[in-house]
Amino acid sequence: MGEKSKFTRAHVFQIDPNTKKNWVPTSKHAVTVSYFYDSTRNVYRIISLDGSKAIINSTITPNMTFTKTSQKFGQWADSRANTVYGLGFSSEHHLSKFADKFQEFKEAARLAKEKSQEKMELTSTPSQESAGGDIQSPLTPESINGTDDERATPEVTQNSEPRAEPTQNALPFTHSSTISKHWEAELATLKGNNAKLTAALLESTANVKQWKQQLAAYQEEAERLHKRVTELECVSSQANAVHTHKTELNQTIQELESTLKKKEEEIERLKQEIENARELQAQRDSLTQKLQEVEIRNKDLEGQLSDLEQRLEKSQNEQEAFRNNLKTLLEILDGKIFELTELRDNLAKLIECS
């Protein structure tokens, strides 16, 4: 094809040939869109491949215009392909850069066309008459580069030249020699293109190997996420153990409250005994001291209960956070699995196409 100049990535669209209004996507994802210079024909092209399928092969002409229809979308009409191409970019900067390059290559195409016309005018010669009275046409771009029919059947073109005497008709032989050299150059170009296509095929094979390595890396990442999910499930089971511990603490508190009530009843009974017998004053003081100790212990238990309630609330919040993280990880895992499935399908299609 020629030498690659500039390239970018974009989503490719074509105008619907039926409605001429709606856009039809020709690529499932962003693909590489490149500018090429075709040295054999001295033209500039816009090329894009989706796998092994060419979705854009547009020759840039001086009459083409690239139009920005939005901040990230641009289009141009190709009269030769009888269609309108559209490109969706990831940012306005990429769109502006592509438009500037389009204008640059459009100007280069205009200059190349003018130089080609000047060369044709310099190489054109007056018409000569053949020995049988037939008129030979002057050299034109079609006679030098060959028309589409002549490129398809070069032998017929050469054989159709009229036979002439060497002394009177040197021009037809010169013309035939020029065409032969042209086709030899075309053959050499085709061989070069064949070598480049072979290199591109080898590059595609290397890319397939690289994609297989990436797929293996994604599989390892999926296994790591599975292990992480298992760890989170273990954390959830620990939260259940905390809940069980809380239940046991509540039972202990109930038992302590029952014991406290019994102590209060005992204190009342002791008070009655103190009122009935002053000799039990010392015993009453001792019981009062015990009562104070019980109250202090009660306060301590209340503090412990408050601390346990706070820990329980914190544990519930952590458990809720763990659940949210688990859901997020599961969603990410589903997305990764879907991407891996899509990548596997694309690789299968690529292998089938190869």
UniProtKB/TrEMBL annotation:
The keyword Phosphoprotein applies. Residues 137-146, 155-172 have a biased composition (Polar residues). Residues 1-109 form the WH1 domain. It is found in: Cell projection, Dendritic spine; Cytoplasm; Postsynaptic density. It holds the Pfam family WH1. GO terms for cellular component: cytosol; dendritic spine; postsynaptic density. Residues 113-172 are annotated as: Disordered. Keywords: Acetylation, Cell projection, Coiled coil, Cytoplasm, Phosphoprotein, Synapse. InterPro entries: Homer, Homer_EVH1, PH-like_dom_sf, WH1/EVH1_dom. PROSITE patterns: WH1 (PS50229). Residues 201-332 form a coiled coil. GO terms for biological process: G protein-coupled glutamate receptor signaling pathway. GO terms for molecular function: G protein-coupled glutamate receptor binding. Belongs to the Homer family. This is Homer protein homolog 1.
